[in-house]
Amino acid sequence: MEDTNPVDTEKPLAKPPFFKSWSGMYWLVLGNLGFLILLFYVLTKVYE
Amino acid sequence: MRLLDWVVLLGTLGFIVTYGVWKTRGSKDIEGYLKGDNSMKWWTIGLSVMATQASAITFLSTPGQAYEDGMRFVQFYFGLPIAMVIISITVIPIFYKLNVFTAYEFLENRFDLKTRSLAAMLFLVQRGLAAGITIYAPAIILSTMLGWSLNVTILIIGLLVVIYTVSGGTKAVSVTQKQQMAVMMGGMLVAGYMVVHYLPQNVSFGDAVAVAGKMGKMNVVDFSFNWDDRYNFWSGITGGLFLALSYFGTDQSQVARYLGGKSVGESRLGLLFNGLLKIPMQFLILFIGVMVFVFYQFNQPPVFFNEAAKSLVYATPYAGDLRQLEEEYTTVFEQKQQAVHGLVTALRGEDEAAIASAQQQVETLTNSAKGVRDEAKEVIRQATPEAEVRDTDYVFISFVMKYLPTGLVGLLLAVIFSAAMSSSASELNALASTTVVDIYKRSVKQQGSPQHYVTASKAFTVAWGAVAILFAMFASLLDNLIEAVNIVGSIFYGTILGIFLVAFYFRYVRGNAVFLAAVLAELVVLYCYYRTDIAFLWFNVIGCVCVIVFGFVLQPFVGKKGVKV
After folding, report:
1. Nearest chain A Cα distance for residue B329, angstroms
2. Would you state the pLDDT for residue B391?
3. What's the confidence (pLDDT) of residue B460?
4. Does residue B213 belong to the interface with chain A, where contact is any CB pair within 8 Å?
5. Contacts of B93 in chain A (CB under 8 A)
6. Nearest to A29 among B213, B219, B272 (CB)
7. For B92, which residue in chain A has the nearest alpha carbon?
8. Cα–Cα distances in Å, from B266 out to B62, B396, B432?
9. Angle of helix B408-434 relative to helix B252-259, nearest 10 degrees?
10. Distance of CA B439 to the CA centre of its chain
11. Are B127 and B119 a contacting pair, CB within 8 Å?
12. What is the pLDDT of residue B23?
């Protein structure tokens, strides 16, 4: 018989692996976006 | 193609298909077949989400787009990370709590059956057409470049996908997409290295980027606002956000990827992984296109990249005209090559006056070359009126076939086939699951056994595969089909997103009101399409906002049918 993995809906807010809370992960993604836009802006200005 | 290329290509594709079938054999119920027994870890989900979005056209067209238009297309993805965060916070917990198989199942819980059926049918029509195009678009380019029959190429892609998608369902799609992403990114990195490696010895990587910048290709971000401009910061961050919310939050081909997660946390991490890496990945692909552009400043490009179309012209009375234009193009290129070398020298000397002078000379010669290219396209159009004169999709594959060494050609073709297979597999799997869960199981046969629904899912996967293959085979008979399908997608996505946003955030609005609001919003979007010049990305915003506003306005007048979750 194959193992099945029941859906873990009991712990929807379990901690992410790299931060204490999910907010940290969300800010990492949004911060990364801000950093990339800034980097791209600098690239555009340097090479225009 | 040499023997080694065939070995690499067939070995890669054969391994992926065999692995997918072997690894996922024996799904016995619909939970296992359509949701992979909720066993997927976050990295599998993240790679699967990225592989679903990255179709073959991503790898064929995006470098060509950068070759013509520079880096600015990357702004199209600025809204995506924000959408990943919003979906992780709101959509995923609700889908998990209701334990749904499809996104549209949720709409019946929140509104009523007619709203669920409307959204499911819109998805089936839209995605059914897109599945054919996902196969057709790369097949037309690959068959042209490889000299294969178009129908044979379509059949190869379609049948390979159907084999493992039917066999293993959602899990097979996800596990094969891990291998496919590895092939895609590995192949593109090798191609990027090779194009830089092939630059002249006296031109460094820094020189190449500087030349690209002076020739207007490093235009990554543009903060100026213009409604008609397709790609700028504002259209990317707003229109791109709404498009990404629609695509990842309501399109079953993506929803199925993260609904197979082991937990809410695994699904969230998978989407956030995509939010972190998608923009760098697109930047890399565009940058490779820019490097191919720089490469062709030092190595003569063909006057027209679709060699097969040119061959047809050589057999007509227009052959002489085309050959004369090719000679003119060679003359202009030789002058431009000297001018670009002059620009490199000026850039190294950091003499502003010399740089400006060299840049002016390069610009003049670039315009001359473009003029000759436009004339060549006109000759091709006159000689073969049915020919497609837009050749940017052929830029990258033409470089691969002509300049990459034996073995790497096979690898890059494997990249393109893998991309076509990964997105097609997700589409067929999503079409089958929506047909079974939202139509067949809900309205046709409600009391079947688990095995019956697995068999039905497999049968619908084969059926949708056959539809996609047939549609791809007949696609060439219709004019502007790809454009038509893209426009249809943009026109409907905003409205569908509006329905879902009302469902998630505005409990005051019920079934009848949202149904009528969706119809009215669609009329507004159609008016914008026919009567204005608004760029298509904005249709997603307009459709979505109209559903929400009309829903609130209509709610007091149309009764309270529909329940709250």
Report:
1. 27
2. 85
3. 93
4. yes
5. 12
6. B272
7. A12
8. 30, 36, 24
9. 90
10. 27
11. no
12. 77
Would the CB atoms of B37 and A4 count as touching at under 8 Å?
yes
Six-digit token pair at B53?
């979005």
CA–CA dist B370, B99 (Å, integer): 56
CB distance A48–B84 less than 8 Å?
no
Tell me whether residue B133 is exposed, middle or buried, using C-beta atoms within 10 angstroms of its C-beta: 0 to 12, 13 to 18, 19 or more.
buried
Residues shown for chain A = 48
Give the amino acid at B186: G
DSSP element (H, E) containing B432: helix B408-434
CA B356, B359, B364, B367 dihedral sign is: negative
Measured between CB atoms, does A44 come within 8 Å of chain B?
A: yes
pLDDT at B430 > cutoff 80 = yes
Cα distance from B395 to chain A (closest Cα, Å)? 24
Q: Bigger pLDDT: B477 or B65?
A: B65
Written as six digits, the tokens of B61 are 């067209």
User: Which of the four pLDDT bands, split at 50, 70 and 90, describes residue B565?
Assistant: very low
Q: Under an 8 A CB cutoff, do B264 and A11 touch?
A: yes
Cα B339 to chain centroid distance, Å, stands at: 37
Whether residues B220 and A28 touch (CB distance < 8 A) is answered with no
CA distances from residue B547 to B42, B272, B302, B561 in whole angstroms, order as listed: 33, 28, 49, 17
**Residue A10: pLDDT band by 50, 70, 90 thresholds?**
very low
Q: B-chain residues within 8 Å CB-CB of A29? A: 81, 84-85, 272, 275-276
Sequence-distant (6+) residues with CB within 8 A of B374 are none
Q: Name the residue facing B85 among A16, A29, A37 (closest C-beta).
A: A29
For residue B530, give both structure tokens. Answer: 């026919």
pLDDT at A6: 41
When pLDDT is cut at 50, 70 and 90, the band that residue B337 belongs to is very high
CB proximity A1 to B under 8 Å? no
Element (H, E) at B267: helix B264-298
- Give B484-532 pLDDT, tens digit per residue: 566 667 788 888 889 999 998 898 898 889 999 998 998 999 899 888 8
Rounded to an integer, what distance in angstroms lies between the CA atom of residue B297 and that of residue B295? 5
Q: State ipTM.
A: 0.84
Chain A interface includes B94 (CB < 8 A): no
Q: What percentage of chain B has pLDDT greater than the value 70?
A: 96
Write down all domains in chain B, each with its CATH number in brackets.
Answer: 3-101+119-296+400-463 (1.20.1730.10), 311-387 (1.10.287)
Cβ separation of B265 and A16 shorter than 8 Å? yes
Distance from C-alpha of B218 to C-alpha of B344, rounded to nearest angstrom: 16
Calculate what percentage of chain B has a pLDDT beyond 90. Answer: 41
Q: Does B74 touch chain A (CB under 8 A)?
A: yes
Q: Cβ separation of A33 and B279 shorter than 8 Å?
A: yes
Please tell me the predicted confidence (pLDDT) of residue B421: 86
Please, which pLDDT band fits residue B483 given cuts at 50, 70 and 90? low
Inform me whether the C-beta atom of residue B269 falls under 8 Å from chain A C-beta atoms. yes
pLDDT band at B365 (very low <50, low <70, confident <90, very high): very high
Distance of CA B480 to the CA centre of its chain: 17
**Is the CB of residue B265 less than 8 Å away from at least one CB of chain A?**
yes
